[in-house]
Amino acid sequence: MDVSIHQSWKPYLQKEFDKPYFKELTDFIKSEYQQYQCFPPGKQIFSAFDWCPFDELKVVIIGQDPYHGFGQANGLCFSVNDGIPHPPSLINIFKEIETDLGVPYPASGNLERWARQGVLLLNATLTVRAHQAGSHQNKGWEHFTNAVIEIISEQKKNVIFMLWGSFAKQKSKLIDTSKHKILSTGHPSPLSANRGYWFGNKHFSKTNSLLEQVGQKAIVW
Questions:
Q1: Sequence-separated (6 or more) residues with CB below 8 Å from residue 202
Q2: Helix/strand/coil (H, E, C) string of 114-158?
Q3: What is the per-residue pLDDT across 11-40, written as a single tens digit (0 to 9) for each?
Q4: d(Cα 107, Cα 109) in Å, to the nearest integer?
Q5: How far apart are the first and last CA of the chain?
Q6: What is the DSSP string of 58-100?
Q7: pLDDT score recorded for residue 3
Q8: Which residues neighbour 63 within 8 Å (Cβ) at sequence distance 6 or greater?
Q9: Which of 119, 14, 130, 139 is nearest to 63 (CA)?
Q10: Rounded to the nearest 5°, which phi and psi values hold at 134?
Q11: Which of 24, 36, 190, 218 has its CA 20 to 30 A from that of 117?
Q12: Residue-wise over 26-42: b if at least 16 C-beta within 10 A, else e?
């Protein structure tokens, strides 16, 4: 696994890369990518960090697993490549933005445009075997991404963490709420959204309001 990560992150994450668990994780991922079809493509495993430099990070959205269908995952949680049909959770995210902010539903599900504005789109597990959800869980990725959240909490101020669903909400214990804001709600998946746990959360307007309160530029969702 080639850990070619944006240089702004290296001073903070190098300690993790040097730990024994990360070496074991790297060996496992190399083996998986050699033997099976895995997603995202190798060069995009760390895309969340590449598109959102540490110094520009303002918002964190936490997902669980990359999409496991062909051509979908691009290393950013909830995001799909241009031209790929939008998965159900992403459709519900865009619907909420539409009603919250009055902006039209977008053609592209590629969320690089958010990442470039300082939104870290972080999956807890950064890789997956094709068509096997959760196949790379409990191999070390969660250890790494939990460390990422703790480092952000320690090293930065006024970051907004958007925690959607019970899995993401568990990460709140890693975040210093005296320095950062947490917005939590149900997961945007149809199962949760259709039971009333997602729509109307207004997380996107709330995030922009919180950013502006601390002199930061609002996100163009």
A1: 96, 100
A2: HHCCCEEEEECCCCEECCECCCCCCCCHHHHHHHHHHHHHHHCCC
A3: 999 999 999 999 999 999 999 999 999 999
A4: 7
A5: 32
A6: -EEEEESS---STTT--SSTT---TTSPPPHHHHHHHHHHHHH
A7: 65
A8: 77, 78, 121, 122, 123, 124, 168
A9: 119
A10: 75, 5
A11: 190
A12: eebbeebbeeeebbbee
Interatomic CA distance for residues 198 and 93, integer angstroms: 9
Tokens, residue 208: 């922009």
The residue among 160, 186, 48 whose CA lies nearest residue 111 is 48
Task: Determine how β-strand 181-185 pairs with β-strand 59-63.
Answer: unpaired
Token pair of 72 as six digits: 């979908």
Instruction: Please give the pLDDT value at position 194.
Output: 84
Q: Is 167 exposed, middle or buried (0-12, 13-18, 19+ CB in 10 A)?
A: middle
100 classed as catalytic: no
Structure tokens at 170: 């568990």
Identity of the residue numbered 3 = V
**What are the φ/ψ torsions at residue 121 (nearest 5 degrees)?**
-100, 85
Residue closest to 125 by CA, chosen among 136, 114, 111: 136
- pTM as predicted: 0.96
CB count within 10 Å of CB 14 equals 11
Residues of the chain below pLDDT 50: none
